[in-house]
């Protein structure tokens, strides 16, 4: 049975949502057999980490493979700690900016790095640079003998014309704004340590993971539902179901190399903000208001390498739009972490 045929019509509860987000594909189950225990996930308490950790657990279980998954974060939110432990993920509370605490982390041959800081950069830029630059250095030193998949972002590229082919992995990294530049720095620090210690790495330039509690689709839908104007200045976007993104991030452990292997991770198609808002208007029974003038350039990642190495995302965006509309109409929970998809100057 293909992944598409197993998709539900609607998602009614957080339990059902988490189940869909962490349902392992056959190819992930197969891949898990190749990983020695443990797998360490750093920065695991954010939007993606909990479901990524559980996906890894479920895939290992389905493979009949005894694999310990260790989630490392400060666990600023206590609920995440219990959510993970109840589901069989080991947790270690650790501030990854603390050199001594990092030195005490368990050895692992496979490490997934999700740490990042974006919002609040404009008011506290030093915090962003410290998180995005120092943490990669400490982690790279500690896990020099492992292999590391580190999350980066499509924000490392400058704006590209939508009429072109999109920014490819070999293109210059010359974005606007301090946040985006700190993410270039994050990549460069990993690259430096990869060369210095011969540590195989992959740098995953993700653009807009989405699920029903956060993401660019939830943001557009909530604004439409509330009768707020949708800013169309950025005109187009790409996004990927968080379950698919997590699946590919884990499988990217098999793509690591020296120098690091860079990979754009998002939808192959570009989606129109206007058309998406109108679709939500239809599904939610709301008129849609717009603001701004559509530009012909924006963040646009080329996905040829993704298609060649990992294949396309399994979950169709139209299904996610349908789930999101239903979720919002029935009062489903939001993480209250807006994407600020309208930002154009790299200032967050
Ligand atoms: N989600 C997306 O759509 C998206 C898009 C593009 C790129 N990305 C990249 O993908 C990565 C994961 O995304 P995400 O949405 O899950 O990010 P997130 O929600 O910001 O989660 C990252 C987590 O890292 C932890 N962290 C931060 N500083 C730390 C420190 N000093 N020590 C230990 N843990 C620390 C935080 O949890 P605690 O407070 O509990 O420590 C935080 O929740 C990020 O690096 C981001 O740059 C994500």
Helix and strand sequence: HHEHEHEHEHEEHEEHEEEHEEHEEHH
* Total DSSP E strands: 15
Q: Work out the helix count.
A: 12
Radius of gyration: 19 Å
Please, what is the average pLDDT? 96
Helix content: 25-40%
- Regarding CATH, which class of the domain at 4-209 and 241-266? Alpha Beta
Give the ligands present. NADP nicotinamide-adenine-dinucleotide phosphate
Question: Explain this structure to me?
Answer:
The chain is globular and about 55 Å long. Strand 4 (110-113), helix 6 and strand 5 form a beta-alpha-beta unit. Helix content is 38%, strand content 15%. Helix 6 packs parallel to helix 7 (178-197) and helix 8 (216-226) crosses helix 10 (273-284). The relative contact order is 0.15. The model has no long low-confidence stretch (mean pLDDT 96). It has helices at 14-21, 26-32, 49-62, 78-86, 99-103, 125-142, 178-197, 216-226, 242-251, 273-284, 304-309, 317-329, and strands at residues 39-42, 69-73, 90-93, 110-113, 147-153, 160-161, 201-206, 209-210, 230-231, 236-237, 240-241, 261-265, 271-272, 290-291, 297-298. The protein has 348 residues and is an alpha/beta fold. It has a domain at 4-209 and 241-266: NAD(P)-binding Rossmann-like Domain (Rossmann fold). The protein has a 7-stranded parallel beta sheet with strand order 3-2-1-4-5-7-12, sandwiched between helices. The chain has a two-stranded antiparallel sheet with strand order 6-15. A two-stranded parallel sheet has the order 8-11. The longest helix has 20 residues, at 178-197. Bound molecules: NADP nicotinamide-adenine-dinucleotide phosphate. NADP nicotinamide-adenine-dinucleotide phosphate binds next to helix 6 and strand 5.
């Amino acid at each position: 049975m293909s992944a598409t045929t197993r998709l539900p019509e609607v998602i009614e509860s957080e339990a059902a949502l988490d189940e869909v987000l962490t349902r392992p594909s056959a190819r992930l189950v197969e891949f898990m057999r190749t990983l020695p225990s443990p797998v360490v996930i750093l920065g695991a308490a954010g939007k993606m980490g909990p479901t990524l950790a559980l996906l890894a657990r479920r895939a290992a279980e389905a493979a009949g493979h005894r694999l310990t998954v260790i989630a490392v974060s400060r666990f600023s939110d206590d609920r995440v700690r219990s959510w993970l432990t109840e589901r069989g993920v080991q947790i270690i509370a650790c501030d990854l900016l603390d050199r001594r605490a990092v030195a005490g982390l368990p050895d692992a041959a496979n490490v997934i790095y999700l740490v990042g800081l974006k919002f609040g950069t404009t008011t506290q830029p030093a915090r962003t640079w410290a998180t995005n630059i120092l943490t990669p250095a400490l982690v790279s030193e500690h896990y020099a003998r492992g292999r590391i998949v580190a999350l980066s972002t499509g924000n490392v590229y400058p704006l590209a014309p939508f009429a072109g082919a999109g920014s490819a992995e070999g293109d210059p990294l010359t974005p606007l704004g301090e946040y985006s530049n700190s993410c270039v720095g994050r990549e460069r620090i990993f690259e430096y340590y990869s060369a210095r210690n011969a540590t195989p790495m992959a740098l995953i330039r993700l653009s807009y993971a989405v699920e029903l509690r956060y993401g660019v689709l939830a943001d557009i839908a909530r604004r439409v539902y509330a009768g707020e104007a949708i800013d169309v200045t950025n005109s187009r976007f790409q996004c990927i179901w968080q379950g698919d993104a997590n699946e590919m991030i884990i499988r990217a452990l098999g793509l690591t190399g020296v120098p690091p292997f860079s990979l754009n991770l998002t939808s192959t198609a570009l989606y129109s903000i206007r058309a998406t808002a109108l679709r939500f208007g239809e599904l939610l029974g709301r008129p849609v208001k717009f603001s701004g003038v559509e530009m012909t350039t924006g963040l646009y990642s080329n996905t040829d390498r993704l298609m060649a190495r990992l294949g396309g995302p399994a979950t169709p965006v139209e299904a996610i739009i349908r789930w999101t509309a239903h979720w919002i109409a029935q009062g489903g929970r939001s993480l209250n972490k807006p994407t600020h998809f309208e930002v154009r100057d790299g200032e967050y």
